[in-house]
Design a protein that fits this description.
Elements (H helix, E strand, L loop, with lengths): L9 H8 L34 H12 L3 H8 L11 E2 L12 E3 L17 H4 L5 H17 L4 E2 L24 H17 L3 E7 L10 H6 L9 E3 L2 H8 L1 H8 L4 E4 L3 E2 L2 E2 L4 H11 L5 E4 L8 H6 L20 H8 L5 H17 L19 E5 L4 E5 L10 H11 L2 E5 L12 E4 L40 H11 L4 E4 L5 H10 L2 E8 L7 E2 L2 E2 L11 H9 L5 E7 L14 E6 L7 H9 L36 E3 L8 H6 L17 E10 L53 H5 L47 E11 L5 E10 L9 E11 L4 E9 L5 E3 L4 E3 L6 E5 L7 E4 L3
Parallel strand pairs: 2-3, 3-4, 4-6, 5-7, 5-20, 6-9, 13-14, 13-15, 15-18, 18-19
Antiparallel strand pairs: 1-2, 7-8, 10-11, 12-19, 16-17, 21-22, 22-25, 23-24, 23-28, 26-27, 28-29
The protein binds 2-acetamido-2-deoxy-beta-D-glucopyranose (10 copies).
Length: 880
Amino acid sequence: MRITSTIATLAAAKLVASQALNDSNPDDALWGATSPPYYPSPWVDETTEGWETAIRKAKEFVGQLTLLEKVNLTTGVGWEGGPCVGNVGAIPRLGFPALCLQDSPTGIRFTDYNSAFTSGGTSAASWDRKVWYDRGYGMGEETRDKGIDVLLAPVVGPLGRSPAGGRNWEGFSPDPYLSGVAVAESVKGVQDAGVIACTKHYILNEQEHFRQGPESRGFGFNITDSISSNVDDKTLHELYLWPFADAVRAGTGSIMCSYNQINNTYGCENSALLNGILKGELGFQGFVVSDWGAQHSGVFSAFAGLDMTMPGDTTFSSGYAFWGPNLTLAVTNSTIPEWRIDDMATRIMAAYYFVGREKNYVETNFNSWTTQTEGWENAIGNKNWGVVNKHVDVRREHAKQIRDAGARSTVLLKNNGVLPLTGKEKFTAVFGSDAGDSLYGPNGCSDRGCTNGTLAVGWGSGTSAFPYLISPLTAIANEVLSNGGIIQGITDDYAYSQIAALASQASHALVFVNSDSGEGYISFDGNIGDRNNLTVWHAGETLIQNVTAVNNNTIVVIHSVGPVELGAFVDNENVTAIVWAGLPGQESGNSLTDVLYGRVNPGGKLPFTIGKSREDYGTDLLYTPNNGEDAPQDNFNEGVFIDYRSFDKNGIEPVYEFGFGLSYTNFSYSNLKITKHPNVPAYAPNNATNAFAPSLNSTPVSTDLADYQFPDDIDRVPLFIYPYLNSTSANASYGDSQASEPYAAADTSSYIPEGSQDGTAQWKNRHPAGGAPGGNPRLYDVLFTVTATVTNTGGVVGDEVAQLYVALGGPDDPLYQLRGFDRLYDVQPGQSVTFGADLTRRDLSSWDTVKGDWVITDYEKKVFVGKSSRKLELEGALDL
Ligand SMILES: *[C@@H]1O[C@H](CO)[C@@H](O)[C@H](O)[C@H]1NC(C)=O
Ligand SMILES: *[C@@H]1O[C@H](CO)[C@@H](O)[C@H](O)[C@H]1NC(C)=O
Ligand SMILES: *[C@@H]1O[C@H](CO)[C@@H](O)[C@H](O)[C@H]1NC(C)=O
Ligand SMILES: *[C@@H]1O[C@H](CO)[C@@H](O)[C@H](O)[C@H]1NC(C)=O
Ligand SMILES: *[C@@H]1O[C@H](CO)[C@@H](O)[C@H](O)[C@H]1NC(C)=O
Ligand SMILES: *[C@@H]1O[C@H](CO)[C@@H](O)[C@H](O)[C@H]1NC(C)=O
Ligand SMILES: *[C@@H]1O[C@H](CO)[C@@H](O)[C@H](O)[C@H]1NC(C)=O
Ligand SMILES: *[C@@H]1O[C@H](CO)[C@@H](O)[C@H](O)[C@H]1NC(C)=O
Ligand SMILES: *[C@@H]1O[C@H](CO)[C@@H](O)[C@H](O)[C@H]1NC(C)=O
Ligand SMILES: *[C@@H]1O[C@H](CO)[C@@H](O)[C@H](O)[C@H]1NC(C)=O
């Protein structure tokens, strides 16, 4: 989603061009790849396990609706048309309020008295299912209490193909398995609180540059269309689709289609991905909503499987819509069959009932477009003044949970024994702007689009307003002062003489550095969403150098959106500890001091690899258009080999590997046991057919356009998108100065694809790898259980994240792939506990592009258990 465009300096863009490491070129097999058509769009299946009641209720509800009411459910009312970032029309006849959709994956955006949670990518470092569930549930509660129906979270796209990707921090991890577990727990948490989760962005939305044509043009890039992520089927299934399958299996009520193109078709009109894979193969029963402005066609996107358009207008606040009146017309003129709009509405209502919205309704009590109590209800047209913000405090006890999540997600990278601190240090000095408060306050920059003071979240629509932000300096000062100690801080990164003077006096120096990124509509310091580099900002390395030159006990704390290059300081003997604290949210300083002062023994592990340089990752972003003014081509040539899989394949030594993290104690691993489950049913491709598209017996669609005119009693809001027609002439209702094609164009082949109108029983929508939400249920059969003994060999109680990796053995398989983990809580000194993980058929399968299905290959398969992706103490063979 975007609001405004800040113009970047072109000089910065040019500078980056010379560093571009993306290897896409016209000789690649993937260059100019296309997506095959897949029609018709699968309709809901009332027999889907877990969804039966929700779908039945939805059908009953939609059966009562008129065409105009169905159009209202599917179409946003326009940017700034209602209180939320996205609102559809209401159904006043049935007393059904307008649905409200709101950001973000770190809490509620554009309101007050809400919490600012730990970011997804940071919470991933906890490797803790409870952290993810509680975080989702907490956000769900706040969302519900503000009167929001759909929370635009969680994120698994971007997955994190390249470390500089601007929005990676909103998602979890470049490992699909870790992301898959995290997204499933998050979806369950959010939805158990009674609101609909919207898992996003589907799919391959791996960079900010060129994600949208108009935005890119605003930054001076002369391109007509969004970037195309081109990918083969194996990579799609084994890597990028994997966590989406987990989200669908966990019951996500909606999925957001992305800005980018995939194989040169836009995400929100890609029938192969929406109809074929999401609704067909993955059996998704909820609704697909467009990212804000990601819809590029009316009829065509409807056939491709889009169910709701956001924010509803063609461009923000234009007053025109691909759907709205156009959808009314397209159904009345029989272009779009009634079953398709019925299915859109049914999917929306199925999600609604699936999470129990009817029992959890709260009237929307805030307005995104003002923080004042009074304002316009419809900012789009400056209409309906009144009380719009009730300032409801929805935070509950979430502060504790956020503090806990932040501490559990902190990763100790280096420790020469200086940590934990006691609070009785003789002289504590703190350095760096990242330790202190922002001069502008925690919310001083719109959508956190700057970095001033401590970094606790990235920028863009993935933010929520901080109720407060505990800076590290504040929390450390509390700690030291409660022990009667000495503490001084310098938060000017460049005051070198004062820094040297203070550092030389201190017994303990804590240096804070950071690295920020965000969403592509904001450019900060020349970073157009994506990071231009992986080094720390504000001359952080020089700052560290200045301190270490005169202080032999320097502790470095990093707040960052992802991996950073640790440069020379990682090996500096005066750097006695390094802590990665990620983006902790509002309790930042408290979470950190819990770890620094030993109240929490660090148990977090890196959810990504920290390499020596960005080149070592083997994948990178495209910073300059590579296809003239046509859509830039981003070829995912590396296949499934990103992050640690790439380091492993290319034999590159990372600085800190995926899964790495130290503790104040030590753990040993022993006693690997592999138990094969008997009598597991064989894999059987799904071959069911589905029934005819349902007829809901709703009011017959009239073809008389007089029936769809604006009612007299409506006080029209300017620019607001309604379902009504402006005229009894179809041509006049359709037309506006922007219409690119005449109404009822002679050639319909481009937007009415073959088979798209066919509502007869289908066999092909039941994919062999399909059959249930998340795919073929046989994929989730447990074939093996692996156990190992984990012993705390150190002196203090601690958590250990035990990790299981598999080697599937084929030439195209990664050396190791994560396939199980568990955070073992509170293991006492000397205590041994059992780590256990189930291996499902899916965990051991590879995607066969010829069969178009999962297979377990004949190659020898192994399992490994250990404390990181490179400390795999135990090894065993799987007897298949
Ligand atoms: C994308 O194109 C590649 C290369 O032609 C093809 O293998 C793959 O199946 C396509 N995938 C989709 C979803 O269109
Ligand atoms: C459609 O939604 C708008 C905005 O909520 C509302 O004013 C209108 O009455 C609705 N139309 C119908 C037919 O329900
Ligand atoms: C964009 O490229 C096209 C074709 O090369 C050219 O006609 C047009 O003037 C360019 N626009 C800008 C703003 O550079
Ligand atoms: C924060 O803003 C102040 C005032 O503009 C500026 O002097 C300072 O350098 C900024 N800090 C950082 C870290 O950018
Ligand atoms: C990396 O980017 C940051 C933020 O834009 C900038 O301050 C820093 O100078 C850059 N580092 C290098 C080595 O160019
Ligand atoms: C401190 O930083 C300044 C500015 O870059 C640099 O000139 C100086 O050499 C640094 N001092 C040390 C000891 O690294
Ligand atoms: C480490 O700190 C001491 C001061 O305690 C200093 O003499 C020494 O040069 C420093 N070493 C490095 C590598 O900076
Ligand atoms: C730092 O230097 C002081 C003075 O030489 C010494 O007492 C202390 O043990 C050193 N600390 C570390 C962590 O090496
Ligand atoms: C109908 O859709 C076309 C694009 O397909 C658009 O140009 C036109 O403005 C839309 N009409 C209305 C009334 O929004
Ligand atoms: C039906 O309406 C849609 C939406 O306005 C339009 O794109 C299409 O051309 C129309 N088709 C016919 C045959 O009138």
